[in-house]
Amino acid sequence: MLTVTVFQPMSERNYRVPPVGDAVRSRLQRSSRRVVPKKFIMSRHKQPKKLEHLALNSLGDWVAKKAEMNMEPVADMAQRDISGAHIILAKIVDSTRTFLEYNVPWMLHDLLADQVIRALTELLDKIKKSLGFRGSMGKFVSQMNVAVKMAEVLFTKNLTYVSMDEIPKMLRSVYYINMHKLTGLVYLNLGSLSGGWKTADMEESVVQALQTLHCLKYLVINYDCTDNILKCIVQNCPKLEKLDISSSKCITNDSVNIMLKLMHLRSVQLYRTFVTLEGFTKLLINCKTLEDLGRCDEIGKILEYIDLTNSDARPLNLKVYVSRYATLHQLQLSVEMCPFIRSMTVFHNTLQNDLMVLIGLRDLRELKLLSCDFYADQVKQVLQVKGCNLAHLHLEHVDQIDLNALMYISQMCPLLESMTFYNCTLIQHTSLYTKKLEISPYRNLKKLTIVAKCTEEQLMFLLSNCLNVEFIQIGTAVQMTDDFVIKLLNKNPLIHLRELRIMQSDFMTMTSVKSIVESCMCLEVLVELESWTLLTENDREYIRDYIRVNNLNINTAPIRRYDV
What we know:
With about 575 residues, this protein is of the alpha/beta class. Among the domains are: about 50-155; about 160-275, Ribonuclease Inhibitor (Leucine-rich repeat, LRR (right-handed beta-alpha superhelix)). The protein contains 20 helices and 15 strands. The protein has helices at about 25-30, 40-45, 50-70, 70-80, 80-105, 110-130, 135-150, 170-180, 200-210, 225-235, 255-260, 275-285, 300-310, 330-335, 380-385, 405-410, 455-465, 480-490, 510-520, 535-550, and strands at about 160-165, 185-190, 220, 240-245, 265-270, 290-295, 320-325, 345, 365-375, 390-400, 420-425, 445-455, 470-475, 500, 525. It has a 10-stranded parallel sheet, with no helix packed on it. Strands 1-2-3-4-5 form a 5-stranded parallel sheet, with no helix packed on it. Helix 10 packs parallel to helix 11 and helix 18 (about 480-490) packs parallel to helix 19. The chain is flat.
């Protein structure tokens, strides 16, 4: 008999934050209150599933059961008449598809597809495990074919979302063959297809699939897009808004002439294709709806060329700027010619550009800076001017970040919702910022990612002040301890935290897990526990048992890619 010790809940706390000075910061004041609402107390426990979810779950199991029940009859028939077995199986699939189409509301078919894929995946795993050393390979293949074929029950006009990256490999061939039946599809991600190795072989099947997808708005075809596919898109997908054809080697400047016929195109990803400066220039000038070119390292040269040859084209409608190479003049042109930029990604070069140019972007909401110094390269001054508008800040390979810099960011970017430190150098401060902080730090922060080495004091300042954070990821360079976790939770119990990922720890034990589970009342995902070296498999099993016995709504299992 398994004995599980129930953790005692921590004592209830009420935290208050000093009042904020002016009306502009009233939003910060509202988000800083620390009284725990009753709804959070209820949400930490698993609630009874909705009837809608139970019905869809049962339908998924029913489809898998129907496939399992027909495996033996179809296998017996196949021994006598293979074509007859195929006809019988096709009739079973058609009748099941018709039943689901008429009895499931159209807006629930995407959720139904998730449940059917789950159930069929479990059935395929069951079949694999049943194949013993002396098992019949013919019977095994027949059973697998029936299970895979049953996925065709999902192919109706009501399905609107398909991403191959989220579908098990065993079922992908069915989707590629029957894609043309999904006439109501809005989002389609075909994945990597052949990875560019057999583009000519994939072209015909992709064209056939796209001919009926008249409602498509979002399409991803990496590696294997061709001009014939683009022509098919223009003819059959007039509503297309976003197109990702990156890494497709068949895409050239001639392809741009085809893409210009897409009247609603807002985003196109052409990274690692053979589109040159001339093609990008034509695309920017003639496609008036275009807002996002994705990563384009030559965007600075493109703007210079447009400025010299077609100055009447300004202003451009570009809202996303991503480049690893930009001179000062090119950055100035981007501010002048693309005044509507909302997302800016810049690789800083001390000898070639000055980040202060960015203060001219009036609509800037997302800033990603790579390879610069916080003080020497005037990042502080940029944030001082534009920080009040920023919602997302990403600092990558940024040096000279100390505790003072973290304080400056908290004061200059009061409405920040997402912040990332990636491979940055967080240094010890030489002189501490002693003035009283006018704005409560990081009260609107919802997502925090720290993949950089930092001191315990810096980490404590960040984590103890983001009272409303919902997602935290700590990289392998940060080594937290039990004492640190307890001290942190005493200051900030992280009552809004939903997902916690601590990628590695050599010092945290069950004490930390216990404290986190007790304190974080909204916690739903606690993963990467396998990389905590002081936790044994028995410890992890104990955690799972505790969560199950106490009916907590926390997932500790590693997430498979197609379950994300």
